[in-house]
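Note to self: keep these together.
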Amino acid sequence: MKTLGLTLFLVSLLIISSCSKQTIADASGNFTMTPSVTYLYLLRHTPFFTELDTQQLRWVIGHSEEWKVQTGGVITTSQHETDYWILLDGGWRLSCDDKNHPSRHDEAGKWFNPSITNKQCELTATSPSHVMRIKSPVMHEMINRGFTFKHHLETGFPMGAEL
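Structure:
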């Protein structure tokens, strides 16, 4: 009987550990980012994605990564990849040289791609946030498929010229 109890305990522990999501290092090396699940019904109401139909939303989910970021987590810097980052929920601050550009998920600055500037920039969560990473070739493919992001990309960081 003790063997059965120990076996059930070990199996339970294995299941729990395999389901837990490991926190990973952010762009500055601190462990502030955790993989997250993207839910269709939530994504449908996220400002950046409200104009997409269900098939397009499913395509986005299948070709992106969602992350939960702790306050103070550095999402990306201008020294990292040139992927697109979309703010799904929460807030962030883009700091470039001596200028700070805070934004919430329902405001114009809800996306960032390090390739839009040649300055030293850092994108940091200002509250517990959910962000989506979309690799640049995937974003270009979505635009070519007619996904209606153009308005958001054009208004994303209106201060782009200042960056």
